[in-house]
Specification:
By secondary structure, the protein is α/β, with parallel strands linked by helices. Helices cover 23% and strands 21% of the residues.
């Protein structure tokens, strides 16, 4: 495990020449770019369980998390056999209960806590989606009330959140993380873990045995659970590891399927669902990852079926599998991986922790901000996929490239700049709405730029001519709103909830929720290219 100190800057934070310009390690875009909950994938460096769990012999972690806690008696009846089976393993019953409005003084809560459970936040009112109705303040209020309520339960230290309905709709948004999760409540409380993004194991992962990712008929075992009667973009693939969203949040992805997705596909309480959950446990052990199961006491899966999955994990993998709560996952990540320094400081602000593969060995490292260097602002990206990163200077838009000798200072200026009218940051140093995206899928990163004033798409044609081919442009309000590319950032500089995935641009915020079909805007790259292809 590697801990180092440094300092960096992009759109408000520092990036030193020694870190940014030297070394062969991966520099993922989520470090020096805007918030993207879906920035990880099969090729992203891993944070495997043995590097953070702090317990010899443990290779995978299972988090059992049940949503919609409102009536403790209903949950207790459903959970009792599950808690009893977990206690037989090591004398504790680690289940995370994601709660809405509850009586913080209910005696059942204390009984659960004594057994080893944790009580976490799931919003106070359970809106689906959270961001809707054109009112961000309403969304933040129900989140804040839930967080503050969980802190009033004696002996409870809430740390985690799950978005309502995130298994049945695309209710997760970058805007949620920047404008709600990353803030503090009126009482000064905050969380540091989310488990709203869903993980899909696929047959494209060569590390997994075929029988774990393909069913008896040769079809993908887990992809069948992605709902086909609605848009479901809330997915990452083949990355069962903790990762950091927007520098303040540990994401512990939840497995696809949840019990809702399973009954939506197989019917309620199907044995096929249990067989696939067992395969997911096996796959997680192979990957040395985390399996977070989202389930409910609503009759979609039986408690004895959860116990059957637990029995499988113990019988097949023994002490290689550790059952933990979200609170325990967070504590172990902080202690064993981050050396005791959490992502968020005591006041909820950025604590100067960065997680990325510093030495290029394919595994994540922890890097800490020493607060000393004061270099120029900009962003590092590999524009043409040749393994050599380019430095985009924020103030001028010029592009520099590192020379092959690897010297930290050995950069040359390339003969092109960012396209006219675009920039990385605005006059206040905030995100200006520029994203590097391979829109035409030629292996080179194009420029997508969109803010409150206008939008454009420019294709990178070569490393000599730069982004010389404009395929889309317009000023805000000159065309029908449906024809425009929506803003990536708002006029006030805040993240508008956009991300790029699966050959599409996506947008989810309080203006798309309950207004657009399936609550999200999406536009295919082919549409953004217009008649240029």
């Amino acid at each position: 495990m590697r801990w180092t100190c440094c300092c960096w800057f992009w759109a408000g934070w520092l990036l030193p020449a020694t870190m940014a310009l030297g070394g062969d390690g991966d520099w993922p875009t989520h470090l020096d770019g805007p918030c993207d909950p879906y920035a990880v994938g099969r090729e992203t460096p891993k944070l495997v369980t043995p590097r953070w769990v702090g317990e010899p012999g443990v290779e995978a972690v299972v988090v059992l998390s049940t949503d919609d806690l409102r009536q403790p008696a209903k949950h207790e009846q459903f959970l009792r056999p599950i808690l009893a089976r977990l206690e037989q393993i090591d004398g504790r019953a680690p289940v995370s209960l994601m709660a809405n409005r509850i009586d913080p003084g209910h005696p059942q809560l204390q009984a659960w806590l004594r057994q080893g459970a944790s009580l976490e936040a799931h919003t106070f009112d359970h809106p689906c989606p959270l961001l809707q109705g054109g009112d961000l303040a309403v969304a933040k209020r129900t989140f804040d009330r839930s967080v503050d309520l969980m802190t009033t339960v004696a002996g409870n230290r809430p740390v985690a959140f799950r978005m309502p309905c995130c298994d049945s709709m695309s209710s997760v948004s970058p805007r949620f993380f920047t404008e709600i999760f990353g803030k503090t409540t009126p009482s000064g409380n905050f969380l540091a873990v989310d488990s709203s993004v869903f993980l899909l194991y696929t047959a494209a992962d060569g590390e997994l045995p075929r029988e774990l990712v393909l069913d008896a008929g040769g079809q993908q075992r887990f992809r069948k659970y992605v709902p086909t009667d609605r848009i479901m973009a809330n997915l990452i693939e083949d990355y069962p590891y903790p990762y950091v969203i927007d520098r303040l949040c540990w994401e512990i992805p939840a497995l696809m399927p949840s019990d809702w997705d399973a009954q939506h596909r197989n019917g309620v309480c199907s044995p096929a669902t249990v067989a696939d959950l067992k395969a997911a446990v096996d796959a997680t052990v192979v990957k040395q990852g985390v399996f977070a199961l989202c389930f409910h006491p609503h009759g979609w899966i039986r408690n004895d079926q959860i116990v059957e999955m637990i029995d499988h994990a113990v019988a097949v993998h023994g002490r290689k599998v550790k059952f933990l709560t979200f609170r325990e996952v967070y504590d172990r990540l902080t202690k064993h991986f981050l050396g005791g320094r959490p992502l968020r400081a005591a006041d909820g602000r950025d604590n100067g922790v960065r997680v990325f593969d510093q030495d290029g060995d394919g595994h994540m490292d922890a890097v800490f901000d020493a607060g000393k260097a004061q270099p120029a602002r900009g962003r590092l990206v590999d524009l043409d996929g040749d393994g050599v990163r380019e430095w985009i200077v924020a103030e001028t838009g010029e592009v520099r490239q590192r020379l092959p000798d690897g010297s930290p200072e050995a950069f040359i200026r390339l003969p092109f700049h960012l396209p006219p009218g675009t920039s990385l940051v605005d006059q206040q140093g905030r995100d200006a709405g520029l994203r590097f995206v391979d829109v035409d899928e030629d292996g080179r990163l194009d420029v997508v730029f969109s803010n409150a004033r206008g939008y454009c798409v420019h294709l990178l044609t070569s490393m000599e001519a730069g982004w010389s081919r404009g395929v889309l442009s317009g000023k805000r309000g000159q065309q029908h709103a449906d024809a425009e590319l929506p803003p990536i950032v708002r006029a006030d500089g805040t993240n508008n909830g956009a991300w790029f995935q699966n050959r599409q641009m996506w947008l989810q915020n309080e203006d798309t929720g309950r207004k657009l079909p399936d609550h999200v805007f999406h536009r295919r790259f082919s549409e953004m290219l217009g008649g240029s292809r």
